[in-house]
Amino acid sequence: MSDDMSAEPGPAAVPRFERGTDGPKVIVAGADGSDASWRAVAYAAGLARRQNALLAVVFVQPVLGAAAALGLPVAEATAAVAEHLLSEIRLGVERLRGIHEMRWQFVTFPGDPYSGLVRAADELKADAVVVGASEQAGHRIIGSVAVRLVKAGRWPVTVVP
Predict the structure, then answer these.
(1) Is residue 86 a part of any domain in this protein?
(2) pLDDT tens, 74-104?
(3) Of 4, 87, 141, 149, whose CB neighbour count within 10 A is largest?
């Protein structure tokens, strides 16, 4: 082994993305307006604030094919939910201004909740995903978004009751 420290670094020294190297940089929180999702957003906000990470609140607008086929205004309804969520988040951030400062963004797009959260977490290079526990009884049988995210094993997932 040589003691020569002046050698040029090789290709292995090129920096590359690595999750969680110095604490989380991006924390994704799923929001759908349910009480459990608001608790998840609040928990994720606390994590992001303490870690100086970006909080990305993600609302995936469900695509309701049957309702759309019947001519119901699905896109308008889900867009209204997204606007309501964003206004609630802005209110919360404004209440904490000067007390707790944090970086955040709101992301929304149509899709199914599981695939949408996976897409958002991948595109944002999330270090962690936080979601609320499902409040629907049927999810105990067929599996919830939270269980599917945990099984995917791509990021640490926190499920907030």
Answers:
(1) yes
(2) 566 667 776 777 677 777 767 767 676 778 8
(3) 149
